DNA sequence: GTCTATAATCGGATAGAC
DNA sequence: GTCTATCCGATTATAGAC
């Protein structure tokens, strides 16, 4: 019988949230065990009870990202604006929760402890499959994905453009034109 | 009067090349002063003569990237295939020299010592200006850039697609159609 | 489940010889 | 310009109390 209120997050999740925040603000070098623990309000020893090593902590973060990406992709499939607009909107807004997680993972790219690239590739593949389910032409679907991924990269370096919302509209109408011509 | 043969690289450049290689293979945590120095064939002390600190080393790398990007953008402006094909080809091939440098810099994103994001934003702006000089519609120009940046991101995580060459062709013809309609 | 204390290692940087 | 030797701080991880 737990005494934790239903609304409070378990420490394990709090620790992963702290890792995400630290990765976004200071990169992988800022994500020390001590910093992650104290941001979550526990001691280093407390963290190491939940994740036995830095590698386990990182892997836990990546696993959660993949699970969430799969769920996010499923949601987007039935978005009222359509998959294209939904995907591009999410990827161009840096404080979208799922975008935050991806950006944090990107800042982890290259660390020796875990295979960040594989986890990100898996997440991206969910989104491609989702897009491709609504756009029959695989080349066009890939192009849409690449535009969204371009947004991710620009969010990573914090450089948006005034034309970005117009780009989203243009791509949406491009896809709509194609759907019309194909029928 | 130097005794160095004309073809040998100065140690300073060798050190920056070593940093690039290490960033690509192991991320920022692998790019220790010791590792960079020994890859370049010198000692840690030897490195610190040329770059007085880790911060100076990183900044030297970013400065070189910005200089090279400006030169690369100028070259692409007069490429025989046209700017669009040239930009997309370069960004989709992970072992292109200038792409390697950008990917290495992306793996440095978030480190506290230097402003990687600003340097990358400057490089990307050169390319946008170059693309925009050949495509009058700024929204279309930005879309082309975003597709290329999507390639960069996928190169970062090592996940290409079979459709990528077809995407390049499609975007090129998309731009050609627009140029025709506008005239 | 969480804490403190401590061991062991590593990375950045200085000093000074050659 | 390059080297070795050394210092110092930071970081991961363990041990064991509560």
From TrEMBL, chains A, B:
<feature type="domain" description="HTH tetR-type">
    <location>
        <begin position="9"/>
        <end position="69"/>
    </location>
</feature>
<dbReference type="InterPro" id="IPR001647">
    <property type="entry name" value="HTH_TetR"/>
</dbReference>
<dbReference type="InterPro" id="IPR009057">
    <property type="entry name" value="Homeodomain-like_sf"/>
</dbReference>
<dbReference type="Pfam" id="PF17937">
    <property type="entry name" value="TetR_C_28"/>
</dbReference>
<dbReference type="GO" id="GO:0000976">
    <property type="term" value="F:transcription cis-regulatory region binding"/>
</dbReference>
<dbReference type="InterPro" id="IPR050109">
    <property type="entry name" value="HTH-type_TetR-like_transc_reg"/>
</dbReference>
<protein>
    <submittedName>
        <fullName>TetR family transcriptional regulator</fullName>
    </submittedName>
</protein>
<dbReference type="InterPro" id="IPR041479">
    <property type="entry name" value="TetR_CgmR_C"/>
</dbReference>
<keyword id="KW-0238">DNA-binding</keyword>
<feature type="DNA-binding region" description="H-T-H motif">
    <location>
        <begin position="32"/>
        <end position="51"/>
    </location>
</feature>
<dbReference type="Pfam" id="PF00440">
    <property type="entry name" value="TetR_N"/>
</dbReference>
<dbReference type="GO" id="GO:0003700">
    <property type="term" value="F:DNA-binding transcription factor activity"/>
</dbReference>
């Amino acid at each position: 019988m737990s005494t934790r209120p239903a609304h409070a997050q378990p420490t394990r999740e709090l620790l992963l949230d702290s890792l995400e925040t630290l990765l976004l603000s200071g990169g992988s070098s800022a994500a020390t065990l001590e910093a992650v623990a104290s941001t979550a309000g526990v001691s280093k020893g407390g963290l190491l009870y939940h994740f036995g090593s830095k590698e386990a902590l990182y892997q836990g973060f990546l696993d959660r990202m993949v699970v969430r990406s799969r769920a996010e992709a499923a949601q987007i499939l039935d978005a009222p604006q359509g998959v294209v607009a939904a995907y591009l909107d999410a990827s161009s807004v840096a404080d979208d929760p799922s975008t935050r997680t991806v950006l944090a993972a990107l800042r982890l790219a290259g660390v020796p402890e875990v295979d960040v690239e594989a986890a990100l590739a898996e997440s991206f593949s969910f989104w491609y499959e989702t897009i491709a389910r609504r756009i029959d032409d695989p080349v066009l679907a890939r192009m849409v994905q690449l535009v969204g991924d371009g947004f991710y990269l620009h969010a990573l370096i914090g450089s948006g453009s005034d034309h970005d919302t117009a780009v989203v509209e243009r791509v949406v109408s491009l896809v709509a034109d194609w759907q019309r011509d194909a029928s």
